[in-house]
């Protein structure tokens, strides 16, 4: 991703893509001092841009640093960057990180840097292919407790176990992994939230030690519009035996059906399909 044409917004200005480098002594690289966002543009418009930028600022605040720009400046840069790169269907990645002035755990005086990159992201799978459902492995890594890590921040350091889980799953031929939490309850996938369907109701884990995804909240609203009951609660792994359908939600994942999680099988059923189409219509502005 580093050697190509295009524009990246970095520290307040638009710079050529391949010039956007950080020093090797950057705190973010050594100690995980970074937060980021991930959002999608559909037909030239970024879905829930304001919510994503608000979360970026909250994440930074939770890690104790102040972004030296306003939320409006970040929003404007995201939109302008799409134009500058001639993109309409794209992924947009803002990232904020602690720089390289102090070399050690403490980094109070380090410059806070910010960058935004956008790249093309057309719908990769046809609806027919996604309709088959993804296969998930069950990770050995667990989401940490809220007093172990800043679990509600979209902080880069929290993704170490996500990458390890995803790599282990892919090595075994799975698409992704389901992670349990520190109590052994069902939590989420490596970059997406999870929902289940049983007897016409939706069941989803309470997001008390992982991100309450913007897509998760959107899908809960869409379900309510369809008079589908949504139950947020602790879900134990054994319960997956009795669930009929399962799907993931995320800005990148959108609404993606699951066919397997470890030993458990699911059908790609009507409720999943309906929410998939509702979400698609909403993000594309047809709703
Ligand atoms: N959990 C994790 C670990 C994620 O990385 C993401 C993607 N940001 C989500 C959940 C879903 O969040 P959202 O719907 O806001 O993209």
Description:
37% of the residues are buried. It contains 7 helices and 16 strands. It folds into 2 domains: 7-120, Aminotransferase class 4, branched-chain amino acid transferase, N-terminal domain (D-amino Acid Aminotransferase, Chain A, domain 1, 2-Layer Sandwich); 127-283, D-amino Acid Aminotransferase, Chain A, domain 2, CATH 3.20.10. The protein is of the alpha+beta class. Strand 9 and strand 10 (186-189) form a beta hairpin. The longest helix is centred in the first third of the chain and has 14 residues, at 49-62. Strands 8, 9, 10, 11, 12, 13, 14, 15 and 16 form a 9-stranded mixed sheet that branches. Strands 1, 2, 3, 4, 5, 6 and 7 form a 7-stranded antiparallel sheet that branches. The chain has helices at residues 27-31, 49-62, 71-84, 127-130, 160-171, 214-225, 270-283; strands spanning 7-10, 13-16, 34-36, 39-42, 45-46, 90-98, 112-120, 134-143, 176-181, 186-189, 193-198, 201-205, 230-233, 245-250, 254-261, 264-265. The structure holds 4'-deoxy-4'-aminopyridoxal-5'-phosphate (PMP).
CATH fold assignment of the largest domain: D-amino Acid Aminotransferase, Chain A, domain 2
- Mass-distribution shape: globular
- Radius of gyration (CA) equals 19 Å
Q: Helical proportion?
A: 25-40%
What CATH architecture label of the largest domain applies? Alpha-Beta Barrel
The CATH class of the largest domain is Alpha Beta
Structural class: alpha+beta
């Amino acid at each position: 991703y580093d050697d190509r044409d295009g524009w990246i917004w970095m520290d307040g200005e638009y710079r050529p893509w391949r010039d956007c480098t950080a020093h090797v002594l950057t705190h973010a690289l050594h100690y995980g001092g970074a937060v980021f966002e991930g959002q999608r543009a559909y037909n030239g418009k970024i879905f829930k841009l304001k919510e994503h930028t608000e979360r970026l600022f909250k994440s930074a605040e939770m890690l104790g640093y102040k972004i030296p720009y306003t939320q409006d400046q970040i929003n404007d840069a995201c939109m302008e960057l799409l134009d500058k790169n001639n993109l309409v269907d794209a992924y947009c990645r803002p990232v904020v990180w602690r720089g390289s002035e102090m070399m050690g755990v403490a980094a109070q005086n380090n410059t806070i840097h910010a960058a935004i990159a956008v790249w093309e992201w057309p719908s990769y799978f046809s609806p027919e292919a996604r309709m088959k459902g993804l296969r998930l492995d069950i990770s050995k890594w667990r989401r940490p407790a809220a007093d172990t890590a800043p679990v509600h921040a979209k902080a880069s350091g929290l993704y170490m176990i996500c990458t390890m889980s995803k790599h282990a799953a892919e090595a075994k031929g799975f698409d992704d992994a389901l992670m349990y939490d520190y109590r052994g309850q069902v939590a989420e996938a490596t970059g997406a939230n999870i929902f289940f369907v049983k007897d016409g109701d939706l069941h989803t884990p309470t997001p008390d030690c992982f991100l309450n995804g913007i897509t998760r909240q959107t899908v809960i609203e869409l379900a309510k519009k369809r008079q589908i009951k949504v139950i947020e609660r602790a879900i134990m792994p054994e319960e997956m035996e009795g669930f009929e359908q399962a799907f993931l939600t995320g800005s990148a994942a959108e609404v993606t059906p699951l066919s397997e999680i470890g030993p458990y099988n699911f059908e790609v059923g009507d409720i999943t399909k309906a929410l998939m189409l509702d979400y698609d219509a909403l993000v594309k502005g047809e709703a």
